[in-house]
Amino acid sequence: MGALRPGEGEVAELKRMRVHPELQRRGYGRAILRRLEERAAQLGYRRLVLDTTERQVAALRLYRSAGFIETGRGEVLGFPCLFFAKDLVEDG
Predict the structure, then answer these.
(1) Helix or strand holding residue 58 (H, E)
(2) Which of 16, 19, 60, 87 is deepest in the core (most CB within 10 A)?
């Protein structure tokens, strides 16, 4: 599963990316992420942002490989987190 949350202006936040543990490492996460990026662009967003905890090693690998750039570190609800962003590119 995954969701988009409207941000300010042309920015949307990627939220709730999850793949059931028994179904991980089969490309579902990448497919969900790709579809969310497409949908965000269709809705007029030009940038996606997200945060994830340091412990989410697979998520960190996925986001980095998909072109997300680390923009900072901090805490969310007491958990050490990394913040990422990606500019969406329009086709054509």
Answers:
(1) helix 57-65
(2) 19
Q: Which two three-digit tokens encode residue 59? A: 């998520």
Where do the domains of the chain lie?
A: 3-87
pLDDT at 91 over 70: no
Name the architecture of domain 3-87.
3-Layer(aba) Sandwich (3.40)
What does the block give as tokens for 32?
A: 């969900």
Give the Cα separation of 14 and 50 in Å (integer): 5
- Distance CA(14)–CA(4), nearest Å, equals 5
pLDDT > 70 in the chain, percent: 97
CB-based contact 1:17 (threshold 8 Å)? yes
Q: Which residue has the tokens 């086709």?
A: 91
**pLDDT of 36 above 50:** yes
Q: What is the pLDDT of residue 89?
A: 80
